[in-house]
Amino acid sequence: MAQTLIETDMRIPNALRFAFGLCQRPPPAPGKHDEVANFAAVLLPPRDGASEPMDCDEPVAPGGLRMLFDSSYIRAHDEDAHFGHAEAGVVGVADGVGSYRDRVDASAFARGLMTKAYMEVVTGAPGTHVCPSTLLERAHQATAAAGTAAASTAVIVSLAGRTLKWAYVGDSGFVVFRDGRILRRSRPQQHHFNCPYQLNSKRDGLTVAAAAAVGEVPAREGDIVVVGTDGLFDNVTDDELERIVRMGTALGFSPKHLAEVVAGFAFEAAGCTNRDTPFSVLGRRETGGAFPAGGKRDDITVVVAYIASHYI
């Protein structure tokens, strides 16, 4: 783990840390340009306009698309799980609910869900488009039927032809980017602060059919999809994530490199105590009292998918 974090740390540009206040930097020498500040200004300009997702009512060009993806996982409790299948164009992540940690293996249901989902995909007919809600439902049924312990949030995103589809339960989620702006973003499902919807083996537990948020949007070449657990979304704002994706696009990052940078940024933000995060802001709002600034230490799973043409 230490080596992975060191390697990830080395791939995060200092301009990113500077732009978002993750580090304290000495001033440049007299008469010298602040190269890091200039770099940050060029690659990480502030967002302009509203933060609401973009509308998508434009026609989609003909031709096939494919999903090129990679992932980064930074462990804290080792209770996240994820899978991906390039040929089927589908990725998913799951997050074991930590409240089970003192009684059972809190990772069990998350790993069961992702394993069952992957096996459902690989045993399906080749060329069949994946329906995320159906896949999540079947994975949940199989995991519950096995009597698997604990509970999990989950999200599955697929590229079905030229359409991005999704299904999720809880606060694992996704963001779709187009031309450097947020096109669509999941919104966490929570009973109350820090208590997300979850799937488990209990008969009184939520079912995918009843609880999952589902949807779709036309895809086009150049779209970028970021899928993650709440270790990402509790610590990184929409503004920060949008600017990081724009930086990665400008620098020609691969899906692996961008996933590592996003996960590494979330890890550093989780350890900060001098800046707000989505978790601390929501904590103050929901509890109605004093809530400290800073992030939330957690497992961080990030999957980055580039939507590309079948022909290169």
TrEMBL record:
One of its GO terms (molecular function) is metal ion binding. It catalyses: O-phospho-L-seryl-[protein] + H2O = L-seryl-[protein] + phosphate; O-phospho-L-threonyl-[protein] + H2O = L-threonyl-[protein] + phosphate. Its EC number is 3.1.3.16. Keywords: Hydrolase, Magnesium, Manganese, Metal-binding, Protein phosphatase. SUPFAM superfamilies: PP2C-like. Pfam families: PP2C_2 (PF13672). Its cofactor is Mg(2+); Mn(2+). InterPro entries: PPM-type-like_dom_sf, PPM-type_phosphatase-like_dom, PPTC7. PROSITE patterns: PPM_2. Residues 64-307 form the PPM-type phosphatase domain. Belongs to the PP2C family. This is Protein phosphatase. It comes from Panicum hallii var. hallii.
